[in-house]
Amino acid sequence: GGSITDPDLTALAAGVYEVTVTDANGCETTCQVTITEPDELECTLTKTADERCEGEANGSATFSVSGGTAPYTEVWTLNGNPIANIDLDALAAGAYVVTVTDANGCETTCNVTIGSNDCDHIFTTGTTCDMYKGGTPILEDLCYVHENGIVTNANDPGAFFYYATVVIPADNTVLTVAQSNNCGFKLFTTKDKFAWNVNNCNKVRTVTTSEPVLGQAQFVFAKAGTYIISVKYQTSDIVGSTVSNPAPNPCVYKFESKIGASVLPSSTGYLDVRPKPECQSAPITGINPELLNVATEVPGLIGSVRAFPNPFTDNVQFTLTAKSDGPVSLDVFNILGAKVATVFNGTMRKGEVKVVRYTPTQLSSGIMIYRFISNGKYETGRLIYNK
Question: How far apart (Å, rounded) are the C-alpha atoms in residues 198 and 227?
């Protein structure tokens, strides 16, 4: 409805334009045109699930773009680092930002943060309170054999433990360790159930335990305070379970400490129960039988780790190569399975190479185990330390 003087016909805003032309004789004519514009370019990035456990890279999110003019280009970053390819159903924990550009050069950004959980609660046979406090490797898989739709063997390993550090808010508090699974298998019955002094791992005698419901451990704490609790389970308890077709791979068991209906923070652990021969259960020290011979390079599906020299007398140099973007860690354990050092813990990009060095302190000569983890998968190898 307004008038325009000397319009730039190459830079018109959206709207209805009309021009009236008058010649030297006073004759007039009118032309009209409507200039449209696309809807505002927008994107939506929404978390649908956090990473189940730290390092598993199984978080998820949904992403959509609207408005603007197709085609669109996307640039993704994780914690500020560019990502070449992204799988929204296999996200590691961290802060994700995506910048979307349309065909006209218009841009918009959206972001999401994927959280993670501390799931270091399920451990293999022989794990003690001191080993739990020291950071012993978790039990990642339990292997089973099935025939004719029935579990016939589940002795790899033969037993496992649940450990957690719990805060008891009041005297005479009842705590339960509950378990469940997503496949209909039998529950594990509880065996030894203990509470430990959080400072020195001495057994606490003022706590009583029971199994009021199959598979549920109950603790009654006479005094408020912070404790370590442990529950031992026998793996053969699931023999006789009905196996669906195809067999669940994995059947996921969840263990969590509760006071009433409330789940205690950082108390949820998971155990993946998998059928053989696909399943390869990790022994107490995390040693892969194929890696028992000292090797300078251990290639694998997740990348490679080179240890040199090996055997070593002073320090050993690790060369790490990642085959995918995501979180990476390198830990060293003693022969009993207790973690003695974290050599590297960070994020690497596909094809990136990092060189790190480890110097043992206050350790005797002997065999150590290193574990290289990338996006929830791991490789292990043996070190020989000649002090």
Answer: 5
For residue 78, CA distances in Å to 158, 322, 352 come to 40, 16, 15
pLDDT at 333 over 90: no
Q: What's the CA gap between 268 and 300, in Å, rounded?
A: 30
Residue type (1 letter), 29: T
C-beta separation of 206 from 252 below 8 A: no
Contacts of 197 (CB under 8 A, 6+ apart): 203, 204, 227, 228
Contact call for residues 136 and 283 (beta carbons, < 8 A)? no
- What band does 299 get if pLDDT is binned at 50, 70 and 90? very low
3-class SS letters over the chain: CCCCCCCCCCCCCCEEEEEEEECCCCCEEEEEEEECCCCCCEEEEEEEECCCCCCCCCEEEEEEEECCCCCCEEEEEECCEEECCCCCCCECCEEEEEEEECCCCCEEEEEEEECCCCCCCEEECCCCHHHHHHCCCCCCEEEEEEECCEEEEEEECCEEEEEEEEEECCCCEEEEEEEEECCCCCCCCEEEEEEEECCCCCECCCEEEEEEECCEEEEEECCCEEEEEEEEEEHHHHCCCECCCCCCCCEEEEEEEEECCEECCCCCEEEEEEECCCCCCCCCCCCCHHHCCCCCEEECCCEEEEEECCCECCCEEEEEEECCCEEEEEEEEECCCCEEEEEEEEEECCCCEEEEEECCCCCCCEEEEEEEEECCEEEEEEEEECC
Distance CA 90, CA 386 (A): 41
CA 64, CA 85: separation in Å to the nearest integer?
Answer: 16
Give dist(CA 138, CA 311) in Å, integer. 26
> How many alpha carbons lie under 13 Å from residue 231 in its C-beta half-sphere?
29
* Interval 45-49 mean pLDDT: 95
Range 155-162 average pLDDT:
84
